[in-house]
Design a protein that fits this description.
Elements: E1 7-10, H1 26-36, E2 40-46, H2 52-62, E3 66-73, E4 78-82, H3 94-103, E5 107-111, H4 128-138, E6 148-153, H5 158-171, E7 175-178, E8 192-194, H6 201-210, E9 213-215, H7 218-224, H8 229-232, H9 235-247
Length: about 260
Amino acid sequence: MTDEIDMIIDLHTHTYPLSYDSDLSPDALIIAAKSAGLDGICLTEHDAFWSEAEIEELRVKHQFPVFAGAELNTEEEHLIVFGFKQWLIGMSGAEFVIEKVREFKGTVVIAHPFRRKILHGYDDPSGERFKQELDKACKNPLFSKVAALETQNAHGNERENSFSAELARRLNQRTTGGTDAHEAADVGHAATYFEREIKSLEELIIELKAGRFRALSTQEITQKLKPSKAKRKSEEWKEKFEKMRQSGLYTEFGD
């Protein structure tokens, strides 16, 4: 962590094999997170759950804060849940999931609220569909029943993330940032700022419920985290990354 912040955590990532569409192993993700200057990482696999023993093993191995969540695909939205670790009949419905997570003293963030909405500029040159979708979302009580909305998603473009940010602003909702990482080059392009240090999943849930956090802006990400996406795609970085992976050394790369 730096002197200017208390903690920066990526709340939304995916690793193989629990997330079938990810090219990242858990080890590779953590290496990339440390290199990018993050203070912690959350593993939020698609409809799959990590055990606390597995997470603790990763924490100890890498000497790095790692937290477990899950991204649940419901009929309405994708929900990032913390403190809930089992699949139940009825979890295709967002309202059901939110209620169950509350029963287990957990908390929920809605991932990429712009998804499943037609927001492409070339389909909507006047911006009318954007406005209609935004007005419609503001009337949906689901967006007010969670701890926060993910307003910075590294896989979303500026227009899509601006939709999520405006939705949160209108609803006076808290905001989070997450890369939705599926490859090493994704890491370090979205994250959440927390006002306090977090050492456990229980503390993460407490801070999310207390609202002591916010999404980092694009400008803040550029200032706080390293290296750049272009650098991580370079052959030099890939070579360093592979050497580090093979050696078992998990310190940050130099500039």
